[in-house]
Amino acid sequence: MPEMPKFTKTSPEVVERFNAVLDRHAAPDVVIKPMFGYRCAWINGNMATGLFADEWWVRVSEPDREALLELPGAHAFEPMPGRSMGRYVVLPPNVAADDAGVDGWLTKALEFTRSMPPKKK
After folding, report:
1. How many CA atoms within 13 Å lie on the side-chain side of 33?
2. What is the DSSP string of 21-54?
3. Options 3.40.50.1580, 3.90.1150.30, 3.20.20.140, 3.90.220.20; which CATH number does 12-114 get?
4. Which of 48, 55, 85, 103 is the most buried (most CB within 10 A)?
5. Separation between Cα atoms, residue 16 and residue 18, nearest integer Å
């Protein structure tokens, strides 16, 4: 069995940014709780967006995933090397730092996640 990687804590600045942006997108169906020990936003039991170390990822539709991956600095979210997670893409740092950029991609992520069936508990 492969050894589990050692995860790096998210910097306080990135957590503060994540919280501030999610506050702007607050809705009754958006729940903030950890995954992999990092802050994530969930809708109906499905992950929509979150942090991993100092990276911010979003879950988007396939066409949006393709468009996002064309941006310099974007890449597939891999919590473990070689283990890409489907439609999850890491935002380029310049997009995550820009209000309009992050709000646009977060809106797409929340809309896409809302379109998914709720996870069974």
Report:
1. 9
2. HHHHT--TTEEEEEETTEEEEEETTEEEEEEETT
3. 3.90.1150.30
4. 48
5. 5
Q: Which two tokens stand for residue 120?
A: 């069974």
SS3 69: helix
Global pTM? Answer: 0.90
The token pair at 97 is 């730092």
Residue 60 pLDDT class (50, 70, 90 cuts): very high
pLDDT in tens, 40-53: 999 999 999 999 99
List alpha helices for 1-121, DSSP H: 12-24, 62-69, 93-97, 99-114
Crossing angle of helices 62-69 and 99-114, rounded to 10°: 160
Hey, how many other C-beta atoms are within 10 angstroms of the C-beta on 87?
18
Length of the chain measured in residues: 121
How many other CB atoms sit within 10 Å of the CB of residue 12?
A: 8
In sequence order, which residues have a C-beta less than 8 Å from that of residue 120 and are 6 or more positions away?
45
